[in-house]
């Protein structure tokens, strides 16, 4: 799954971000190269992980609202909305 979300440091908002290996669970890890930054490594925003999109779609099919979906998956409400929009566009093709 490709992630189109712009990666920036969660602590400083810097875009001096380099990939830095993966966690044991396979989550992409990033390193912030801003010298002022206190958060040197962080993980990619959860919505970008493979499987989240499928879970968002599954929950919507099962009748979950956008708020519920966002809360259960611990992602942003706007991410749920854009994920559903993209999925519907793909389905109606
Ligand atoms: Zn940073």
UniProtKB/TrEMBL annotation:
Protein known as: Insertion element protein
Family annotation (InterPro entries): InsA_HTH_dom (IPR024431), IS1_transposase_InsA (IPR051252)
UniProt-listed PANTHER family: INSERTION ELEMENT IS1 1 PROTEIN INSA-RELATED
Organism: Methylobacter tundripaludum (strain ATCC BAA-1195 / DSM 17260 / SV96)
Domain Insertion element IS1 protein InsA helix-turn-helix: 43-88
Gene Ontology BP terms: DNA transposition
Domain of life: Bacteria
